[in-house]
Write a structure and sequence with these properties.
This protein is α/β, with parallel strands linked by helices and about 140 residues long. Helices cover about 15% and strands about 35% of the residues. A hairpin with a 6-residue loop joins strand 6 and strand 7 (about 115-120). The chain has two helices and eight strands. It has a four-stranded mixed beta sheet with strand order 1-4-3-2, with helices on one face. A four-stranded mixed beta sheet has the order 5-8-7-6.
């Protein structure tokens, strides 16, 4: 690979069943900001890019809502999770539980390690990992 080419993770896209519910989860509860929204009537879908900073500087999440899909999407065996870094996983998990977010796995030390992790589900059942900074 040429040293003149630099790669940066731009975004991850997930398909969501209820865009309003997902936006509430990721913006109000998780603290992300809506960066841009595009509606494509001819394709019958909307996508919204959300993140913690500007698109050209930080990694973002693209929520895609296909207007004619009424059933939950299959997650597939290859999908793992979306990870968010937080200073205190236990406190963040308590906050999320208080907000009615479904807990998959409570805060605990990582299997075979010491880093604190916790897992929750977003409104569409996607797994969200919370982890503490590596240098903690």
């Amino acid at each position: 690979m040429s040293e003149n080419i630099k790669f940066r993770l731009d975004h991850t896209m997930i398909r969501v069943s209820d865009l309003d519910k997902s936006l509430d989860f990721y913006t109000r509860i998780m603290g992300m900001k809506i960066l841009r929204e595009n509606k494509y009537p001819s394709g019958r879908f909307t996508n919204v890019f959300i993140g913690f900073g500007p698109e050209n500087e930080t990694t973002t999440l693209e929520l895609t809502n296909n207007w004619d899909i009424n059933e939950p999407y299959e997650k597939g065996e290859g999908y793992g999770h979306i990870a968010f870094n937080v200073d205190n996983v236990s406190a963040a998990m308590a906050y999320l539980e208080n907000e009615g977010v479904k807990i998959k796995s409570p805060a605990k030390a990582m299997n075979h390690g010491t880093r604190m992790l916790g897992f929750v589900f977003d409104p569409d059942g996607y797994v969200i990992e919370l982890n503490e900074p590596l240098n903690k």
